[in-house]
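Private note to self, pasted from the team thread so I don't lose it. Backbone tokens:
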């Protein structure tokens, strides 16, 4: 870790003369601290900065003035699997450096290499329907299987489904937090958090110990879209954080994708509005991959056998037979085991595969075809 610049960027992020939002806008407008420090103070003042702000930008941090808070954060980053990545670090995401208000620092726990991977963002409603969660998990599984890192916000509903789909494909996944990375939010996602740490990364611009706050999440959303080549919206009402993320993605010149849904569902309206406004309609992972060709290097994609449209017939004859046995009114696992001659364990594996492929879903102990 570049200690001197890390200290300077942490001081900028925490300085009372700025606030995190002002510091990010200054970097977006003026560039790195190293560049800013080559500017005369008079020029900074002419840009509307106060004398205190200009002095803070131009003066490297005094070692003796480091606060207890900064010392604690630097000590935290010394542990394995943790890092504080500042704006000028080679690990700072290239795409994120290009947005209008790039975060001065990112607190990262997990696999640092995720940050500059070919990333795809996926967001949706916290109250996502069973249909939406199935679609998100299936699509994240397919995109992860194709070689993309799936980025979301670890919220309940669609975000959680997206992370789970990527994890099931043994792909990498990134959770952008609206809290400090040391805070598990929501609390019920503790197990998911641990899985992401092993198979991806937790990332936040907020200081360690920062609790969930309403103002944090719109700020978090610009990082989700800014980190990625494209954004997939799975379910969203007309007034939702997911559409805020889509607005950021549009401003950042990212590709925007939307999954259509039932016309009777309020969670479909946001996606349908995006499609009317020009977002790419997604019926399969291939719709996303084709659009990203030329944006993401071709060698970043893995050869995948699982990019079929949602609900198409499985290639495996045994899976196709099992799918054909699913009743519209729902089938019990015991009945399916008797019909197929499979053990309960083998049946459970095949049913899970059908769920991940978006061809079946489980509700109330019964399995239904999609």
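Design output:
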């Amino acid at each position: 870790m570049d200690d001197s610049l890390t200290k300077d960027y942490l001081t900028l992020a925490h300085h009372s003369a700025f606030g995190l939002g002002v510091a990010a806008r200054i970097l977006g407008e003026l560039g790195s601290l190293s560049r800013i420090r080559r500017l005369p103070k008079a020029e900074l003042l002419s840009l509307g900065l106060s004398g205190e702000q200009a002095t803070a930008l131009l003066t490297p941090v005094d070692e003796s003035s480091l606060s207890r808070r900064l010392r604690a954060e630097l000590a935290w980053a010394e542990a394995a699997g943790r890092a504080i990545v500042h704006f000028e670090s080679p690990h700072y995401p290239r795409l994120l450096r290009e947005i209008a208000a790039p975060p001065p620092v990112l607190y990262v726990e997990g696999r640092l290499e995720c940050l500059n991977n070919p990333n795809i963002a996926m967001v949706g409603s916290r109250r996502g329907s069973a249909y939406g969660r199935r679609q998100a998990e299936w699509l994240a599984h397919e995109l992860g299987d194709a070689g993309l890192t799936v980025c979301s916000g670890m919220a309940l509903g669609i975000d959680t489904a997206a992370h789970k789909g990527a994890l099931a494909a043994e792909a990498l996944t990134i959770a952008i937090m609206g809290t400090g990375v040391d805070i598990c939010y929501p609390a019920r996602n503790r197990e998911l958090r641990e899985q992401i740490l092993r198979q991806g990364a937790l990332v936040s611009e907020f200081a360690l110990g920062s609790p969930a706050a309403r103002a944090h999440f719109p700020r978090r959303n610009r990082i989700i879209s800014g980190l990625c080549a494209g954004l997939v919206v799975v379910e969203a009402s007309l007034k939702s954080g997911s559409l805020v993320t889509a607005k950021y993605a549009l401003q950042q010149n990212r590709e925007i994708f939307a999954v259509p849904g039932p016309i009777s569902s309020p969670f479909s309206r946001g996606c349908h509005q995006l499609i009317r406004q020009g977002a790419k309609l997604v019926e399969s992972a291939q719709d996303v991959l084709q659009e990203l060709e030329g944006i993401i290097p071709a060698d970043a994609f893995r050869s995948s056998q699982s990019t079929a449209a949602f609900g198409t017939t499985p290639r495996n004859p045994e899976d196709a037979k099992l799918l054909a046995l699913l009743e519209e009114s729902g089938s019990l696992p015991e009945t399916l085991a008797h019909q197929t001659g499979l053990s309960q364990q083998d049946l459970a594996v095949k049913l899970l595969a059908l769920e991940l492929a978006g061809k079946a879903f489980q509700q109330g102990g019964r399995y239904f075809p999609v």
